[in-house]
Design a protein that fits this description.
Order of helices and strands: EEEEEHHH
Bound molecules: zinc ion
Helix content: 25-40%
Largest sheet: 3 strands, antiparallel
CATH class: Alpha Beta
Mean pLDDT: 93
Oligomer: single chain
CATH architecture: 2-Layer Sandwich
Distance between the termini: 44 Å
Structural class: alpha+beta
Number of strands: 5
Strand order of the largest sheet: 4-3-5
Length: 94
């Protein structure tokens, strides 16, 4: 018998830019590259328009993302370190 997959339609799978782990989008932290300005912002509500990049909600992945510029690689634009640091603080991941 196939398992019921009730919520899968609203819970797409995304990949962490740092450790490459895949997880339901709702379990990851989203950063959005704003159309036109190409500014990258922390997107806690996962509702901002534009291309997204994702990180696991843990300090290791944030550290790794800062070190390897993982978000820049995914989003193809410069990402201000402060965006990551502010998100980390907001999430109390330090
Ligand atoms: Zn990760």
């Amino acid at each position: 018998m196939p398992k019921p997959r009730k919520r899968s339609r609203h819970n797409p799978i995304r990949r962490c830019a740092a450790c490459r782990r895949t997880a339901p989008k709702a379990e990851l932290i989203r950063f959005a590259r704003t159309p036109r300005t190409l500014q990258v912002q922390f997107d806690p509500a996962q509702k901002l328009p534009g291309r997204g990049a994702y990180l696991c909600p843990n300090p290791d992945c944030f550290r790794l993302a800062l070190k390897r510029k993982s978000l820049e690689r995914v989003l193809k634009v410069k990402v201000d370190e402060r965006v990551l640091q502010a998100a980390q603080q907001a999430l109390e991941l330090s």
